Queue: 2 jobs
Job 1
Amino acid sequence: MAALTGCHFPRRQISPGNSNGRSLTTVVRPGVGHGRSVVSVRRRPVRSSLQLDVEKSTVPLAPSDRSPSEERFGFDAASEAELKGKGLTGLRRTKLVCTIGPACCSPEQLERLAAGGMNVARLNMCHNSREWHRSVIRAVKKLNREKRFCVSVMIDTEGSQVHMVDHGAASSIKAEEGSMWLFTTQNFEGTRPFTVKANHEGFSEGIMVGDELVVEGGMASFEVVERIEDDLRCRCTDSGLLLPHAKLSFWRAGKLVDRSVGLPTLSSKDWVDIDFGISEGVDFIAVSYAKNSEDIKALKTHLSTRSAESIRVLAKIERLESLENLEEIVEASDGIMVARGDLGVQIPLDQIPAIQKQVTSICRQLNKPVIIASQLLESMIEYPTPTRAEVADVSEAVRQQADALMLSGESAVGLYAEKALSVLSTASLCIEAWAREDGLRNLPPLPRLTSYLSDSIAEEICNSAVEMGNNLGVAAIFVFTKHGHMAALLSRNRPGPPIFAFTDDANTGMGLNLHWGVTPIVGNLFEDMERNVKESIRFMAAIAAVKLGDVVLVVSDLSSVSPATSAFTQSIQVRTVGQ
Ligand SMILES: Nc1ncnc2c1ncn2[C@@H]1O[C@H](COP(=O)(O)OP(=O)(O)OP(=O)(O)O)[C@@H](O)[C@H]1O
Ligand SMILES: CC(=O)C(=O)O
């Protein structure tokens, strides 16, 4: 095998074996072209082949004779600023999701969040009107179009939950210990003191005197002292704040009384919201209270008939049943949200860290992005700095290499939305740098994802590419991808170098926004792979993302159909940025 030239890193023998120690059958044949060694892998006469090119020659930086590369690709303005500020190693790998609410919904506030690194804007359909959601979605899309941001949009379904719709005040109100409150579904004009209106007619069904009513997983607690038809008179036993839309749960003898039995995961309102999301071109739909894979499959079937674009379905893990059916839910969905807020309503809080770790690990094994959500920086709703414990919690999620972190109330209603985002960003960068130094080689082995030959070739290429990239210390990994599959497979290996995913499909780019370490770059791609490689390197050099002498690993799953063989080639190449 030819040695690499012009590379300033320890030279190692490049082997097509993957990180799990499995290796493909290899045939080394004489180099083709100028100074290349090619390791090709052939199995049966299938239409796929793997090509490993280690190229001595450099990619010249002279401008191409066509239109400038810079105009060919759309690079996210926020990532570009990050790159300019800190270089490739300073590019954040952990993705950031912000819940949009009244505190951050103006075009100016959205722009500041986008500039601060928001990768995905989340809209919780529990709150506010569809008109309001529409205006936010359109404002985000306008920012993407006009200011070169690449912020995806997620809607989050309300789901069948019992929550307050009115609690006798405009915003929050404190329930004092010993005070008596009426929980009702009666319709009345305006608000009444010490009266909480619940959203669901049957909210008190089966509830008995002596049961405990818990608000928002423990913000405040009440004891049911009397039933008056369907209403409940309750005494506050644990004082606390009642917030708009706070969730209500009932407990008997230390066990949750499940109020969602018999209710569908997606309510009729959710289906209307979903169709609204389709018509507004959202990128992700998060399904609240997913019970099993059927919930996810039903929505995917609906989307496949209603939307030409691919809208990714995320399952929220926030109820006991979702934990019981965890693997099938992860398999069926395009990603997962560990919704620690509602999870904490149903299971003891001390179990949440272990569940977060388990869900994160399963998602990585099954190659699905995972978002860690709720209360990451809760105190920043009111204060300009987080608590030490909050920073430790964020750092632990980054150390677990979750794909994304999410702000909830901190951005939606908090006083310091942009600061909270900046805390997430800084903490992520800090732990990622530490993990690269310290923990990179201690990742647990990944199981094989598939037994289908064509898919396992892609998987083997990506596993090998990451191992090569790490060992060679390349500056970056470039992947050319149509549907994002190979970019996701590379990300699953959590490589040291950043991944730049070049695609000509804007929808693929938006979907990749949730994948750890992947920066999507949308633009025109050519039939000719060599031309794509050269143009991409020139483009990245033009924006100073790579510099002279940098070595990049190039991976492709584009179907470059050779007229002679009709072969479908997937490849890994090592290229040097040249004069
Ligand atoms: N669009 C909005 N309009 C008004 N308030 C909002 C909006 N989105 C969020 N909020 C406020 O921000 C808080 C946090 O929002 P978030 O959606 O993360 O929490 P949540 O309502 O508990 O979520 P979920 O219902 O999915 O568990 C909410 O309690 C609500 O007060
Ligand atoms: C985000 C969310 O829905 C939760 O944590 O419950």
Job 2
Amino acid sequence: MIGITDASLSFGNLRLFARLTLNVASGRTMAILGPNGRGKTTLLRAILGFQKLDRGRRHAPDIVGYVPQHGASQVRLSGLEVVTMGRAARRGLFGQPDGTDADAARAALVQVGACHLADQSYDRMSGGQRQMVLIARALATGSPALVLDEPTSALDLGNQARTLSLIAGLGQARERTILFTTHDPNHALAVADDVALMMPDGEIVQGPVGEMITPDLMSRLYGVPMHWARIAERETRRAMLPAFTGRDVA
Ligand SMILES: Nc1ncnc2c1ncn2[C@@H]1O[C@H](COP(=O)(O)OP(=O)(O)OP(=O)(O)O)[C@@H](O)[C@H]1O
């Protein structure tokens, strides 16, 4: 399990959450959605223990695979070396990486489809390439828990689809507990079992994905009309879109 129980956090007058209990059960995948500045990153950081809570308890394994929203960019290491850093917590403070660590790091790069980044210098990579490497680093930890802060935000559509398939596959195996933030309700629809909505009015609503991704709740969440669109003729799956999409160019 990963999450927080009966937790509160404010910065001065800005109340992010109060008496919040938000837990992801083992093997489940939860998405957190909310407008900019609502507190998604801070909530993840609190769960990871990087942000002190005003009250309440956090629950997380000792090692968590974490993909931050903005990783440091001035890192003069190769892609493979950055991914190998994901093994550091297993080695202890003075442990040196060995062959097993290098193998695990290479396997993680293969898993995210980023072998070609192994020898590239991290500080010369694009934002999306760095994001792929950081996802590989999180997988390389071997942790049963993954916390990903907007893991697809810098990725092109192909890499978004590949990353979502990867997360969906990990989720379906039920061996990892996954918590991620996203600005796209369709990404939650694609991979999450459960969803937490950090509403603009301060309320936090949680439930199964099918009950949370609705036009009504999404419109309230983002303050613009949202509606269902069919993905294609004869296709039962639907996409949740804001009203400005679908301009008629014919
Ligand atoms: N250490 C801090 N001290 C004071 N305010 C902070 C601190 N950390 C975050 N905040 C504030 O908390 C709010 C939530 O920030 P956070 O980054 O968690 O939002 P977010 O939902 O992840 O936003 P976005 O979708 O834009 O990434 C912001 O107003 C931010 O300025």
